[in-house]
Structures are given as C-alpha cells and as structure tokens.
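Data availability (excerpt). The following record was deposited with the supplementary files.
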Amino acid sequence: MSPNSSSLEALKSHILELTAEYSRLAHSSNRAATDPLKPTWNKGDPIPYAARVFNEDEVKAAVSTTLDFWLTLGHEGTCFEGELSSFLGVRHSLLTNSGSSANLLAITALTSSKISQKKRLNKGDHVITVAAGFPTTVAPIIQNGAIPIFLDVNPKTANIDTTQLESAYCPGKTKAVVLAHGLGIPFNIYEILGFCRKYDLWLIEDNCDALGSTYSMPVDLANKLGVFNSSPGLKPQPGYITRWTGTWGDISTQSFYPPHHMTMGEGGAVNIVQSNLLKKVVESLRDWGRDCWCPSGVDNSCSKRFDWSLGQLPQGYDHKYTYSHLGYNLKPLDIQAAIGRIQLTRLPEFIAARRSNWDYLRKGLNSCSEFLSFALPTHATAWSPDAGFFWDDTGCTTDCSWFGFMITVKPDAPFTRTDFVRHLDTSGIGSRMFFGGNLVKQPAFVNLALQYPDSFIVPAALTSSDILMNSAVFIGTYPGLTSSMLDYEIEQIKSFVEAY
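Predicted structure:
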C-alpha cells in the first residue's frame, strides 16, 4: 500500500526539523558574525581569508530538494535564474557549474555563427584584457583561438590602466574587451564602456569577485553612453545613474564558489544584459550545443518538434537532438540552486558586512601606512579615517562589495612580502596572493609563448602587474568575520610592522 501525500509531507517535515537541529549543532561556526548563535572566536583559532556563511535554512533547502530527487537543473534552477536576473536588473541569468565555465560560455558565445560576421569573434581576432588576475578570465580567449592583448593595471585598484586602451586597438581585429572587477573594485566603466561604444566592441564583465559592487556616473555622462536607468533595488541618487557591476556590458559572469559573495558550493552564472540572441547562444552552448530550448523533462514547447529542417538533417528530425553549436554540458544541480536561492536572500547583508569589515580593517591599520599601502576604489584619489574616500573630478564614484582587503608592501619597506605573509601564516591569519599575479609569467603562459609565440600579445611593459605579483597580498572581508577576529588581525599586523 502506497503512503498518501499527507503522510509523506508529515515525514518530510519531520526530517527537515531534524535537519535544522543537526545544522545548528554541527555548523554553528559557519553562521554570520552578527548571528547570536555563532560561537565565540578564541585567540589561537585560525582565521581563514574566506569561508562559507550559512545556517540551517540552506541545509534544509538542500535536503528538501534531495528528498524530491529531481537532481538535475529544474524548478529550483528556473526560480534562481529569475531571482538573480531580477536582483541585478538584467534580462537573463543562466546558471552554470562554475564561474570559470561562465567565462568560457560568455567568450565562446561571441564565436557563434548566429552572430553577424562583422561582430563575430573569429580565430586570430584580438580581445583586450589585463595581465594581472585569475587565469580563467582569459584562458577562454585562447581556447577559442582568439588572441588576448595583455595590458597593465593600476596597482592601487588592480584594474586596467585605461591610458593603454587606444594603442591596443587594432581596426578590423579587435572585437571585445574582457575584464574582471578585481577584488570587488569596479573597473573604470565610464572609460571602458565609452571605448567599446566608440569601436563597437563587445564588453564582458567578469563579476565573479564583485557581486554587489556599484558604479555611479552623472546622468549626462551615462546618457552619452546609452545608459538611462539605475539598477532596481538601489537607492536613487539625484543626478546620477547607479548600476550594479555586471549590468553595464553585454555579458557578465558570476561565481558561487565558497569564497565568493554567496555560495552554491560549485556554481556560477552568465548574465545576459539585453540580447535575447546571446541568451539563446549561451543556453545552447551550456546544454550540449542543442538547438532545442525545452528544459529537462519538457518536450515540444515549440509545438513543432518534428517539423524543423535544419542543417542537412532530414525534414522533421527530432529538434531535441538537433545541435547548432559545438557545446558542453556545464549545468549545476538543482540542489545547488536551492541553496543559492536562500543565499541570494542574504546577499544584501553579506554585501554590507564586506563593506563594514573593509572599513574596520582600513581604520585599524592606518598607522601602518609608512610601509604598507592599501587598495583604493576606482576614481578615489585618497582616503582618510574621518572623511573616507576623496574622489576625482570625473563625477564618477564606486561602492565596493569587497572580495578581500588588499595590502601591498612598499618598495622601501624593511621587510618583504614573503616576510609579511609568513608572519600572517604563523599567526593563523589566512591570506592569498593577487590570484595569478602577472599571468604571462605563469608556467602555462610561458610554455604557451614558447610553443606558439603569436598566441598572445603584450604591447607594453607590465610594470604594475609585476608590483602586484611581487608585493601584494589580501586577507578576508567575508561576513563570518567577527570584531574579535578583525581586532586580532589588526593587532598582529601592527605588531609586525612596529617591530621594524
């Protein structure tokens, strides 16, 4: 005799009650710093540079979806994609299994035969990017047969040095600009977007480190670039257009890996700002390259499944097995999407915590400025403990959802970056270098240059990329950091510097 639905629901409800109880006992250390159930941090306990922040709600969502056992991307994924696109104010968001896969899909989409020849990214075409950053921001350029043009960065913002843009442009060859908002600091959107509009180039924003960062520009400047509205959910500033990063270009990407602003474990997303065509192309590439747009478990949503005539296939060949691209299978699981939906509701508090933690560290470490320098947002010229940031005369400002707190050891300091990070490590303070540093000096790119000398171009010295590679490090700003943890970090860094 099969159990009735009410008895199954009652059993499921009981399982989820026990799940919540288990999570509260087993995962209390992963709660947000402001959560009263978070245990007290004790001196001597390690402080990671990043960690998952969640409570029983995420665990219940994962278990509930698992009990339903749909597994592959389904209802939860559809809901999450809609909720993420609504939060950002973009036309579509498509879930992927990682931020790196999102970058692969975003760049590969530009090679689609569905895009006009003039705009299409073809083998040998140029894509402007920067040398300092994470390798999978730029690897898909090479993987698609295009040529990255590696420009230098501003060492204070870790973002592109826009003075090099014009000299990097090659008429008829340059097709796109692909840039990350490094460490949550928006790049100079006014200059980059103006450059892309001038030459009709694609702009892909790698927003994996910057979910929740905003960029503001005066209305007259924004309107010149064809931007007329602020992002939904943001408090309007009279005379300004303010948008989330990841909503200014053509495509943007997200990562939901545990260190990032919200997590699904593994996972990422491609955001399509406007174009329905790009949405269809990215979705096809993500889902094996198929031409069909039916979700898993759904057939014939076009009502002509056996009426298509595409390629050289026979008339009426099953549309579910018709492929318009050489694609991949880069979808996450519905279980991950269920976790992501809960995380997305926490995103505003996570963003606020990252900003607050950065400010706390900056004020606490100000006395170390003789030997250490600290990151500045794009368009900021200086910072003071009382007034905060001072801005340049462009009228543009940024508000960072900081991925980390970057510290650069000054060249005249009596200690090296290695000395500094060894002290952090001995003190139990987690840290990371600025990702891959100067990527062209990584083994993969050194070997690539030896085997295929024309596979990338470095038009000018990468002086500031080398500075970040040799002298920069960052520590955490994630929402699980309590004031006692931050105080300990400040104490340890100050004591190290004061010893010199």
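Summary of structural features: The mean pLDDT is 96.
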